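Feature request, filed as a ticket because there's no other form

It would be nice if the structure record came with a short human-readable summary line next to the tokens. Right now we just get the raw output. Example of a typical job, pasted below so the devs can see what we mean:
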Amino acid sequence: MAGGLTRFGNDLYTGARSIDFIKRRRIWYLVSGTAVVLALVLPLLVLPIFGHGFKFGIEFTGGSQFTITGSSKVNDSKLATAAVQSVTGTQVQPTTAIVGGNQLRVQTAQLDPTGGTANTDKVQAALAKAYGVPNPASATAGVASSFIGPTWGADISSGAIRALVIFLVLVAIVMAVYFRTWKMSVAGIVSLIHDLIITAGVYGIVGFEITPAAVIGFLTILGYSLYDTVVVFDKIRENTSRMGERSTRTFAETVNHAVNQTLVRSINTSVVGLLPIASILFIGTTLLGAGTLRDISLSLFIGIIVGTYSTIFVAAPLYTDLRSTEPAIKLQTRRALTARAGA
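Raw output as currently delivered:
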């Protein structure tokens, strides 16, 4: 089995075997375009009709948080919902999560818009009664409350957007300088935006909560996707720089050969990255109940898969199309086809 995989990878590298990614690029564009449209339309326009869609944590929207400690009932989240709604009514839908295995975190929308603490105190008391813990809290048990204002949440949101824009601008400049062509830069940035939209769209469609930890994961996968794209682009530049008048490969075929040469490396890198992330996701979700670990690892897991796809099926084909209209590339293509016909 291992010998077969090694032989397969060697055949791809030498050109004895080839998967024609570039020739089928219209199909990949259609698949990616459909995925991007669904990632935008479903959570933004369709799912909100049914009360679903993008769900942001209170760090972005502002709200109240209650942490229940020292209760044997922390695994029963229905008690929290009933306790909160006994004060606020059914218009407030709390979200719950087990933290550290022995604590229950309850988050709600802003309970006291006028700045008072009446509803917060009532919810705290109702939760303490429902879970059988003292109120006020003791050293080992009770309900702790905290509040995040909408202004702070807006600052977090603007900071995340600003960081993303600065990152993309710097990446575009560095890639253009390094590869000495803006077209590789454009293809790379389109690939990164593609990854970000689809990863965020999965969160919105499935209903995962977007927290600061998830945003950190989004920015991290952009770095991974960029690394994978640069590796493939570097091989493309190396191969295309060797094309001469006697080359029997067209520009598109040369790019495709570079993608084939780096295919096994891209897959191996992705698998090596996904295995520990999957372990962290499993441990953080099921064993430790650590929400931050879950949020970061989940976005990384989705993003690595999407990033590997986009490097092969979006970035390289798009770069081929951006270069295919250049007179020098058209001339080289004609020469290659003529040399092949006369061989």
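Something like this underneath would help us a lot:
The radius of gyration is 26 Å.
The chain has eleven helices and six strands.
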